[in-house]
Specification:
By secondary structure, the chain is mainly α. Among the domains are: about 190 residues, Orthogonal Bundle (Lysozyme); about 70 residues, no CATH class; about 55 residues, Membrane-bound Lytic Murein Transglycosylase D, Chain A (Roll); about 50 residues, LysM domain (Membrane-bound Lytic Murein Transglycosylase D, Chain A, Roll), CATH 3.10.350. It is about 35% helix and about 10% strand. The chain contains 22 helices and eight strands. The strands form four sheets. Strands 1-2 form a two-stranded antiparallel sheet. The protein is globular. It starts with about 80 loop residues before the first helix and ends with a strand.
Length: about 525
C-alpha cells in the first residue's frame, strides 16, 4: 500500500479479497449522516481494567476500583450476548455488504475458528472499546486484520493483532527491539490501535467508515479518493461517504470495511447462519503483573504453572526467553494464577538472577565453538534463543547464558572471580559526564546511557524529582563492554537509510541510536556518514 507520507497499517493477513463489480449508477448517494452516534452504555463490570482516559498509561489490569456503577445493567455471562444488537454500524448500513455476508455464510467454520482464538483477548478489547464509547464493530477488527493471531505477519511486515507496520507502530509508542515487539503486546497494541482509530475518526469528520478505511489504506489515500470523487461529480457532496468513494479506493480497502460490517452482522445473527461461536466468558481472562526488573520467562512459566502455549498467547510481545534489560514491562497471566504468582516472586528472587551477554555470530563459527568459548552448553544457548536446531547464521545475534561464579571466601578467590566476571562481559562502570540540553530529563538521560533514574540521581546527589537546568553537568556511571569487545561498532550510512532502518537492523531503538550519536530523530543522514552502533 502507498500514500504520500501518510500513516497506514498494512494489511490484513487473514481474509481474501472478494471481487465484485460496483454498479455504475449511484446507489448510496442519499443525503444522510453516516457517522456513528455513540450510545452511552455503562461498561459491564470488569474490575481488572482501568479507564484509558483516567490516566495516559498502560491500564492497570489488576485494579479493582473500576466499573461499580452498573448494578442496574443486565449482565450477560457470554460475551457474544453482551455484544448482540450493539453493532450499530452494521445495522445502519445493512444491504450494502451482501456479497461479504454470502462469503461468511458459505464458510461458517471460519468464524468458529477465529472466535476460539479470540478467547484470551476479546473481553479486554471490548472493555476498552466501551470505555471510549467507540462502535462495538471495532472490537472485531482483529478478525479482519490478523484472525486474532498475535504473532501474525503480513507481506508488508505488519504485525500483531492490529497489524501495525513498523513505522506507524513507532509513532504510536510500540517499541520494536531485538528483545520485544510492542505490536504483539496485547495491552499496548490495543491502546495504540484505539488511539489511532480515534484520531482517524476526528480527521474524517467523525465518520467511522472513513476512519476504518483510513486505518487500512492510510488517510492520504482516502483524501485522494475523495478528491477523485469530487472531480467526477457535477454537484459533489461536501463530505462524501465511504460508499461514494469506494470505487476509487485500492481493492483491499474496497473490501475491508464491508468485511468488518459483514462479520458483525453474521455474529449478531449467528444462529441464522449456522455459525457456532466459542462461548467466551464475559469476564477478564488475564491480569497484568508488573515486573520490577529483568526475568527469565521459562522460570516465570514454571512458577505460574500454566502451559507454555497459554503463556505465549498472552505474552507474544517477548521475542526472547528473557525480558528486556531496561524499561517498564509486564507479563500477562490467566486471572486465577496471578495472586499465587505474585506471592511466589516475592519469596523466590532467583527468578531475577540473570547473567547473559550478546554475541554476534562470526563467519565460520558453530554453536559448539561459541558454547565452548563462553564455558556453557549448546543446550542452554538453544533454550535461551528459542533455537530448534544447531544451525546458526553469521551476522545474527545470540544471547549467551553466563554460568554463575561460585561464592568466594577469601581475597584471592574474590579477585579471580572478579577477573572472570570481566571476561564474561559482566558490566563494569566508568564515569562520564553529560551536559543537560533542552528537552532532557533524568529519565531520558538515564535511558540514553543504559542506566536507571535511581542510579543517575545517586551519582549526582539529586532527588528523582529535581528539575534540571540547561547546561548542568551530570556524572554518568556508564556500563562498559569488556576489554575484548569494543563499546560500539561503526556503521557506514547507505543511500536510502534512515535512523529507523539502521536501528531496526541493529536491534536497538531509534531513540537510543539518535542519542548515542547526538542526533535529533529528524536528522538528515548523508550516505558515507559514520554512525556509532552500541553493542
Amino acid at each position: 500500500m502507498a500514500g504520500g507520507g501518510s500513516l497506514l497499517l498494512s494489511g490484513c493477513v487473514s481474509l481474501p479479497l472478494i471481487s465484485y463489480e460496483l454498479p455504475k449508477e449511484k446507489i448510496y448517494t442519499e443525503n444522510r449522516q453516516s457517522s456513528f452516534k455513540p450510545t452511552l452504555i455503562t461498561p459491564p463490570s470488569s474490575p481488572f481494567y482501568t479507564s484509558h482516559r483516567a490516566k495516559n498509561t498502560v491500564p492497570d489490569v489488576t485494579s479493582e476500583a473500576q466499573h461499580k456503577s452498573d448494578i442496574n445493567r443486565t449482565f450477560h455471562p457470554i460475551i457474544w450476548q453482551e455484544m448482540q444488537h450493539q453493532f450499530h454500524l452494521s445495522i445502519e448500513h445493512l444491504g450494502k455488504y451482501n456479497a461479504h455476508i454470502d462469503y461468511f455464510q458459505k464458510r461458517p467454520k471460519y468464524l468458529t475458528t477465529v472466535s476460539q482464538r479470540a478467547k484470551p483477548y476479546l473481553h479486554y478489547i471490548l472493555s476498552q472499546v466501551q470505555l471510549r464509547d467507540m462502535p462495538y464493530e471495532i472490537a472485531l477488527l482483529p478478525v479482519i486484520e490478523s484472525g486474532f493471531k498475535p504473532t501474525a505477519r503480513s507481506k508488508k511486515e505488519a504485525g500483531g493483532l492490529w497489524q501495525f507496520i513498523p513505522s506507524t507502530g513507532h509513532i504510536y509508542g510500540l517499541e520494536q527491539t531485538w528483545w520485544y515487539d510492542g505490536r504483539q503486546d496485547v495491552i499496548k497494541s490495543t491502546q495504540a490501535a484505539l488511539d489511532y482509530l480515534q484520531s482517524l475518526y476526528q480527521i474524517n469528520n467523525n465518520d467511522w467508515l472513513l476512519a476504518l478505511a483510513s486505518y487500512n489504506a492510510g488517510p492520504g489515500r482516502i483524501r485522494q479518493a475523495i478528491r477523485t470523487y469530487q472531480k467526477k461529480q457535477s454537484h459533489p457532496k461536501a463530505q462524501p461517504t465511504f460508499w461514494d468513494i469506494q470505487r476509487y479506493l485500492p481493492k483491499e480497502t474496497q473490501n475491508y470495511v464491508p468485511q468488518l460490517l459483514a462479520v458483525a452482522h453474521v455474529i449478531n445473527h449467528s444462529d441464522n447462519f449456522d455459525t457456532k461461536l466459542e462461548p467466551i466468558e464475559n469476564a477478564p481472562f488475564f491480569a497484568a503483573v508488573s515486573l520490577p526488573k529483568q526475568i527469565h520467562l521459562t522460570k516465570a512459566i514454571q512458577l505460574a504453572q500454566i502451559p507454555e502455549s497459554t503463556f505465549k498467547q498472552l505474552n507474544a510481545g517477548y521475542l526472547s526467553q528473557i525480558t528486556p534489560p531496561n524499561g517498564e514491562y509486564h507479563i500477562l497471566l490467566p486471572i486465577d494464577k496471578v495472586d499465587a504468582f505474585q506471592e511466589l516472586i516475592v519469596s523466590n528472587q532467583t527468578l531475577f538472577n540473570i547473567q547473559w551477554q550478546k554475541h554476534t555470530i562470526k563467519q565460520g563459527e558453530s554453536l559448539s565453538v561459541i558454547a565452548q568459548r563462553y564455558k556453557t552448553s549448546q543446550r542452554e544457548i538453544k533454550k535461551l534463543n528459542n533455537l530448534k536446531s544447531n544451525r546458526i547464521r553469521a551476522g545474527k545475534t545470540l544471547l549467551i547464558p553466563i554460568p554463575n561464579a561460585p561464592q568466594a571466601n577469601n581475597k584471592s578467590q574474590l579477585a579471580t572471580n572478579s577477573q572472570k566476571a570481566i571476561q564474561g562481559n559482566t558490566a563494569i562502570t566508568t564515569k562520564r559526564t553529560h551536559k543537560v540540553r533542552s528537552g532532557d530529563s533524568l529519565w531520558r538521560i538515564a535511558r540514553a546511557y543504559n542506566t536507571d533514574v535511581k542510579s543517575l540521581s545517586r551519582w549526582n546527589n539529586l532527588s528523582p524529582s529535581t528539575p534540571l537546568k540547561l547546561g548542568m553537568i551530570l556524572t554518568v556511571g556508564q556500563p562498559q563492554s569488556p576489554t575484548n569487545t569494543p563499546a560500539y561498532a561503526h556503521y557506514k550510512i547507505q543511500a536510502g537509510d534512515s535512523l529507523w532502518k539502521i536501528a531496526r537492523k541493529n536491534s536497538i531503538s531509534t531513540n537510543v541510536l539518535a542519542k548515542y550519536n547526538n542526533l535529533s530523530l529528524k536528522a538528515y543522514l548523508k550516505p558515507g556518514q559514520l554512525l556509532k552502533i552500541p553493542i
